[in-house]
Amino acid sequence: MKKQPMLPDPLVDRRLLDNLRQARLSFEEVDLQMEEVIAKFDELIRQQKLQRIKQKQKN
Which structural domain range is residue 45 located in? Predict the structure, then answer.
């Protein structure tokens, strides 16, 4: 006689799914924060390039 596969508890499935959704939202938040940091560095690099160009024009 074959054993029937045990079905997971629906409450466990729900809890795991909720945890996965929360983790996805956390990753999305971190991704947006990293995009912000990258944008700030890009702006800093643009400003430094502009300063070098202006400095060279003065010389």
Answer: 10-59
| Residue 1 included in any domain | no
The total domain count for the chain is 1
Rounded to a whole number, what is the distance in angstroms from the first to the last CA of the chain?
92
Q: What are phi and psi of 5, to 5 degrees?
A: -65, 140
CA–CA distances in Å: residue 22 to residues 8, 11, 25, 32, 58: 21, 16, 5, 15, 54
Q: pTM of this prediction?
A: 0.69
Q: Is 3 inside any structural domain?
A: no
> pLDDT tens across 14-59, in order?
999 999 999 999 999 999 999 999 999 999 999 999 999 999 998 7
